[in-house]
Amino acid sequence: MEHLIDIVLLGLLMITGFAIARMRSLLAVAMLTSIYSLLSASLFVVLDAVDVALTEAAIGAGISTILILATVALTTDEEKAPRHTPLLPLVVVIATGSALIYGTLDMPHYGDPAAPVHMHVAPAYLHDTPTEIGVPNVVTSVLASYRGYDTLGEVTVILTAGAGVLALLGYTTRRRNIQGPGIRRLVVLRVIAKLFFPLILLFALYVLFHGDYGPGGGFQAGVIFATGFILYALAFGLGNAQRVIPYQLLRIMAAVGVLIYAAVGIESMLLGGKFLEYRVLADDPVTGQHLGIMLIELGIGITVASVVLIIYYGFVSRRR
Amino acid sequence: MDSVLDVLSWICLSGGAIFLLVGAIGVLRFPDFYTRLHAVSVCDTMGAGLVLVGLMLQGGLSLVTVKLLLMFYFMIFTGPTAVHALAQAALQGKLEPVVDDREP
Fold first, then answer.
1. Which among A291, A136, A162 has a CA at the least distance from the CA of A214?
2. What pLDDT digit, counting tens, does each position of A265-288 carry?
3. Domain A1-107 adopts which CATH fold?
4. Where are the domains of chain B?
5. Cα(B51)–Cα(B56) distance, rounded to whole angstroms?
6. Degrees (nearest 5) of the Cα angle B22, B24, B27?
7. A71 with A315: CB under 8 angstroms?
8. How far is A195 from chain B (nearest CA, A)?
9. Å between A210 CA and nearest CA of chain B
């Protein structure tokens, strides 16, 4: 039965891929990439990787679609006809594809307990998480505690990406509300947006602080938080959204998130532990771990939300 | 009692599936944008709604049912709103509906 779901999902993925390759209208391609992300998210759920699925659904299907649409609005919605014959790209794709398929022949079977990836550090993480970290979600304990250095690096990468987009796009403050000509008539959309805005923020906070127990964490929560504000900006205009959460504040908050993360590390050094060794943060090691994970997830959430909103503001405030 | 719930839930699930199928056929077969939107909204509200109700009956009184109820709440609000926004956008984009003006 599960195989059937896999086959259907993979088949739909393939159809979507072909459709994306054949479409010339970039608006349709934006929607199709969103569908592609949603299908991959479903596939991740089937594979029991709910944390990844949540990320894929929030970032791939949500934020990237909005950013692609914003780009299309700034440029053109029609793809130019290719100038060269597709023969060489076809050969390259077929060669790469067959090399990849050949590579999978040597891979261990899915879920094989003897696979190398399950022999190295994974058993220790799985075995020690309940006693050392005390959180049910092992993904969070690996991401936030055992692999805290890597995650700090990832958050810094996100901050750098935000700074890069900022440097490329620039930002012009404009007094007037940037919105479509007829958006005032969309009363229903505005009422529903107003109704859902607090719920989205609440859900983001739930995902953030419930990440130890269920799927979720700082990355997903930050994106969901930003989505709430993007919905607000779409329904009420960018000017009003900036009155709620100004651009200058976002620029500071993006750095504050990373600083919170690093500060937790330095604090644990000051208390006599190693960098990002949370168990010294409280008297009880497990409580310390909880506190540390909570704080760094908060830092991740702040940075991710700010960077996503900075990029969104940058795209939308730009003149065509 | 259990079997009654089971039968009810299966009625809901298959009803939802029928509505989804009808909506999908409508999207393919209807002549213009607005009528197709009409078909899509059937999928969003009745199709997904009935499937969720069927799943709630399967879940019984548990956390799963509460989550499904929340999803139902979101679907029932966002689906029609999205279709409404699409129709408004199409109207503002001066997309004319196909009108059959032959004499009856």
1. A136
2. 898 888 888 888 888 888 888 888
3. Four Helix Bundle (Hemerythrin (Met), subunit A) (1.20.120)
4. 2-92
5. 9
6. 110
7. yes
8. 10
9. 15
Can you give the pTM of this predicted structure? 0.85
Phi, psi of B30 (to 5 degrees): -70, 155
> Does residue A192 belong to the interface with chain B, where contact is any CB pair within 8 Å?
yes
Residue A263: the pLDDT is: 92
The tokens describing A315, both together, are: 């795209």
**Domain limits, CATH 1.20.120.1200, in chain A:** 1-107
Residue A239 has a pLDDT of 81
pLDDT in tens, A156-204: 999 999 999 888 887 766 555 555 545 566 788 888 888 999 999 999 9
- Alpha-helical regions (H) of chain A: 2-22, 26-46, 50-55, 64-74, 87-105, 122-128, 138-140, 148-169, 187-209, 218-236, 238-244, 247-270, 285-316
Chain A residue with CA closest to B74: the answer is: A196
- Among A271-275, B32-36, B45-49, whose mean pLDDT is lowest? A271-275
